[in-house]
Amino acid sequence: MSTPIEKLITNDEALARKIWLAGLGAYAKGSRELGQLSDRSRSWLTDLVEQGRAMETDTKTRWKDASSQTTQAVNDKMNEQMQRFTGMDPRQLDDLDAKLEKLAAMVDKLAEMKVAEAKPAAPTKAAAARPRKAAKPAVKPEPKAAPVKPAAAVKPAAVKPKAMAAKPDDTKVS
């Protein structure tokens, strides 16, 4: 016993098969009729193909021209905006960029020379035999905190102006 869904699937498959066969039949009929075309029809088709090739060449040429014109217009607009923004034309910016690259190379070379000069020579025997002084610590010790007075000894603070009121009061003990 088949369900309604199976019947729909079977009907859909049958319909798809009929569509497929109709397509094959149309192809076969067209192929047969194409073989029966007269010389006049074949020459007409050949003329259409030649005109299509000419049109394709012409269209490609027009497209290339339009593309190059559009590219040039965009480049001109970009250069105009860059000149408006920097006050320099693109050629000047390229020259400035080249100078900056040269300057960066010179700075790198000078830095390398400085490092080479700063490298200490190998210590001599006399310098190695001398005892060294202990280095001072880089961090200073923190000062000792002032003793905290008992809460009873703290006097009430006087009224402060508004500008001073925003600062925390160091004399209060929590």
Topology record:
Layout: H1 4-35, H2 39-86, H3 90-118, H4 125-129, H5 162-165
Report on this model:
The protein has 174 residues and is mainly alpha-helical. It has a domain at 1-36. The protein contains 5 helices and no strands. It has helices at 4-35, 39-86, 90-118, 125-129, 162-165. It is elongated and about 110 Å long.
Estimated helix fraction: 55-70%
Q: How would you characterize the largest beta sheet?
A: none
Instruction: Catalogue the unreliable spans.
Output: none
Query: What is the averaged pLDDT score?
Result: 76
Radius of gyration: 47 Å
Secondary-structure element order, as H and E?
HHHHH
In short:
The chain is mainly α. The chain is built from five helices and no strands.
Descriptive labels:
single chain; 174 residues; mainly alpha; 5 helices; elongated
